[in-house]
Specification:
3-stranded mixed beta sheet, binds zinc ion, about 5% strand, mainly alpha
Length: about 600
């Protein structure tokens, strides 16, 4: 019997986008949300009497319940859209759920603002009462953030204006960059397709030509991008001024439950140690027969992975190797595969990419990917099974204790990926294959330690200038070039000054500074992996405890409690960076051996 490659969605809501069960579910959800709006906010906690508390507990539990149900429906519909991009009914349902989610967001904002107005003693009494004590961390956090904002009336006004102001710049950027097409060898290509050519093509002349075309296409869009970037940054700075927030890092640090000291400690270690990657650049330049790498060479493939895997072989490979760390991790993966949580078939009409989405009511998740028999798709499988495992170990926690930040979201996924990568490396004796596998790891290291750092440095410098003036295309490109030279340690012969235009992440208004959590997550999970390897199966229980607490602790508390480390100090970061740079010398030796 061959292993099924399609997921089971019918056990969640039977009947796909025409599901009558889903329709009924959404109708009830809509009615219940209306009911919450009718009831309004609970009365102030003036005396701390039981009946006052009971009204608050009801209101809070109701919002969590509505949110879990919205998330359940949203995840299911997201799966429908991904498995068939032409499913128009699913797209309509998605818009319907987006609208419910946004109404629910408004309810949370109002409740948090009301919480901010309650006296500390009465509030603390409330959140230490069951069943709220288990979600006290999240509730205290919402209240703390609300206290740092303007009055609820002003915040509501700012939020509503942002839809057609702040967030509209992001939309405009999406339209302008999405519509742009170039002609490549007589055929139209989107900028995304062109980018893949200069990143992945093994032929250097192809990469060079693609990169030049890419830069000239962005040059044509640069003035519109500069307007979008200047104005959304201006909006953010104005809002922060009214809230009394003096740093542009205040909001992203809050989102990531991270202290500034930890971020600074991490970057200081990266700054001090990433120069080691210049040896990797030099070895790679030698392979390409050039003096110094250019921008489009940094992530270019080297060596060759010949082996192909069937889906069955890939699943066996990851399950076996998870089992070497701990049998429970292997058992979980086997269960997810056998119970058809994974959509892996390679067929037209599916969305690109991979994701894992949680179903809080079913206490399950679903993984979407396209398995194409390559090494990379085996890694994607391992990676997504990590996200799924993270959700699995948290499944019995109250919904309000399951929200984790972007910085720790990749812990379990990167962990699994590292297990699979190291196992593949051990399994091969072919030097060209080893070179390819090491090249992939070091290409990641350059991405996280240099490219992402350049984005962070650019944004800091940009916001500092933006507080004083509107920046021109040339000024933005100058700032970007300087940031890239710093982060890449002057190690390249050519950079990408228009990166501020070409990188979508600078325009994501929902998540400011959409960069440092990547480097944080990468190094954090490498540090966790290093501890796991040092301690073996005995580490498993601490690993699970750490994942379970990702929704109930600040990042510093998480690291202190479960790993015994202080993120504000350089030691942990130094160990993690050393670990990811340990392959540089071996890469150089392999290059020397092969040439
Ligand atoms: Zn991931």
């Amino acid at each position: 019997m061959t292993l099924p490659m399609n997921w089971d969605l019918d056990s969640i809501f039977a009947g796909g986008s025409g599901s009558p069960v889903l329709e009924e579910f959404l109708e009830k959800l809509t009615r219940d949300l209306e009911g919450v709006k009718q009831v309004g906010l609970p009365a102030p906690l003036t005396t701390g009497a039981d009946e006052q508390q009971a009204a608050w507990i009801d209101a809070i539990q109701m919002l969590y319940d509505l949110q879990a149900r919205t998330s359940q429906a949203g995840s299911f519909i997201g799966c429908l859209v991904a498995q068939d991009v032409k499913d128009d009914r699913a797209l309509q349902l998605m818009a319907q759920v987006d609208d419910l989610a946004s109404q629910l967001g408004t309810q949370w904002t109002q409740l948090s603002a009301a919480a901010a107005r309650q006296p500390d003693t009465a509030w603390q009494k409330l959140v230490s009462t069951p069943p709220l004590e288990e979600v006290a961390f999240h509730l205290n956090e919402e209240r703390k953030i609300a206290r740092q904002k303007m009055s609820p009336e002003l915040e509501t006004l700012a939020n509503e204006l942002a839809t057609n102001g702040y967030h509209a710049w992001d939309r405009l950027y999406g339209v302008v960059s999405g519509d742009k097409e170039v002609t490549w060898q007589g055929k139209p290509l989107s900028l995304g397709q062109l980018q893949n050519k200069f990143l992945d093509d093994p032929e250097r002349s192809v990469r060079e030509e693609a990169f030049e075309l890419y830069e000239s296409a962005w040059q044509e869009l640069a003035r519109v991008c500069a307007e979008a970037l200047n104005h959304q940054a201006g909006f953010r700075l104005t809002l922060y001024r009214h809230r009394g927030w003096d740093s542009v890092l205040h909001e992203p640090l809050l989102h990531n439950r991270l202290q500034r000291e930890s971020l600074e400690a991490m970057w200081a270690v990266v700054e001090a140690k990433s120069g080691k990657l210049l040896d990797y650049f030099a070895a790679k330049a030698g392979l390409f027969g050039v003096e110094k790498l250019r921008w489009f060479d940094v992530h270019a493939p080297v060596g060759e992975v010949k082996a192909t895997l069937t889906y069955e072989e890939a699943t066996d490979f990851v399950v076996d190797n998870f089992g070497r760390f701990h049998p429970d991790l292997a058992d979980f993966a086997r269960m997810a595969i056998d119970q058809r949580w994974i959509e892996a078939e390679d067929r037209p009409g599916k969305r690109a990419g991979g994701f894992c989405t949680g179903l809080p009511l079913s206490k399950e998740s679903r993984i979407f990917m396209t398995f194409n028999n390559s090494y990379n798709s085996m890694l994607t499988l391992a990676h997504e099974l990590g996200h799924s495992f993270h959700g699995w170990v948290m499944r019995d926690l109250p919904y309000g204790a399951q929200f984790y930040t972007m910085g720790v979201a990749e812990t379990a996924s990167t962990f699994n990926e590292l297990v699979a990568r190291e196992a593949s490396y051990r399994a091969t004796t072919d030097d060209r294959e080893r070179l390819s596998l090491l090249g992939l790891k070091l290409s990641d290291a350059a991405g996280f330690l240099m490219n992402i750092r350049a984005r962070f440095e650019f944004e800091l410098a940009f916001f500092e200038q933006r507080a004083k003036k509107h920046l021109s295309v040339a000024e933005l490109s100058e700032l970007m070039l300087a940031a890239q030279q710093t982060a890449f340690k002057e190690g390249l012969a050519q950079y990408h000054p228009l990166f501020w235009a070409s990188k979508l992440h600078f325009y994501i208004t929902q998540a400011p500074f959409y960069n440092f959590p990547y480097t944080f997550g990468y190094l954090f999970s490498n540090g966790v992996y290093a501890q796991a390897m040092a301690e073996g199966p005995a580490f498993y229980d601490r690993y699970v405890a750490l994942l379970r607490d990702t929704g109930s602790m600040t990042t510093e508390e998480l690291a202190r409690t479960h790993l015994g480390i202080d993120l504000t100090r350089p030691e942990f970061w130094a160990t993690a960076v050393d670990r990811v740079l340990a392959d540089v010398d071996e890469f150089g030796e392999l290059v020397a051996k092969l040439s």
